[in-house]
Specification:
single chain; lipopolysaccharide transport protein A fold; ten-stranded antiparallel sheet
């Protein structure tokens, strides 16, 4: 009897070892960056004391631990009367579910309600201070014909107070009056 038990134990051990190796091979072939949940047509709204601050929409999103990675991102920013003040569009973005900070990239556009347009490669929305930041090249077109270009930016979502951090150049239609007249 001892002889028949040993081959059975050895066979069982080989099966377990084979299954473990197979499982490891499957894990190695799977992509490492798999979301826990995949969502279609995501819509998230940030509020403060019941007042709507911004809404993020995305065609598709993957939920990871603290990060939501989204495709075809649109963020609508609202003023104190909950009217749309600007819209941000980007092919992809990430939302930190703990801080509610947003990073967007790849041909980012921000258009305000007064038709000011900002173009850049990437932006970061810092939620706690309600500021848009980037270290990338930016180009801004205002309705009055003003064009501002530079590297690095700090602004509010309405683009009313714009601070270019690095090199800056621009054109403005403002005419300086002659002091001698």
């Amino acid at each position: 009897m001892k002889r028949t038990i040993r081959p059975a134990i050895i066979t069982f051990a080989l099966i377990l070892l084979s299954a473990a190796c197979e499982e490891k091979e499957i894990e190695e072939r799977l992509p490492k960056d798999i979301p826990k949940i995949v969502l279609e047509k995501l819509c998230l709204t940030e509020t403060k004391s019941g007042q709507k601050l911004w809404t993020l929409n995305a065609d598709r999103a993957g939920v990871y631990d603290e990060i939501i990675k989204a495709d075809s991102v649109t963020v609508l920013f609202y003023d104190e009367h909950e009217k749309e003040s600007s819209i941000l569009k980007a092919p992809r973005g990430e939302l930190n579910t703990r801080t509610h900070n947003i990073f967007v990239a790849d041909s980012v556009v921000v258009i305000t309600s007064d038709s000011t347009k900002l173009y850049t490669d990437s932006l970061f929305w810092l939620n706690d201070s309600a500021k848009i930041l980037t270290d990338a090249y930016v180009k801004i077109f205002k309705g009055d014909g003003t064009v501002i270009e530079g590297r690095g930016l700090r602004t509010d979502p309405r683009l009313t107070r714009i601070e270019i951090i690095g090199e800056t150049k621009g054109v403005s239609p403002i005419k300086i009056p002659d002091i001698r007249k």
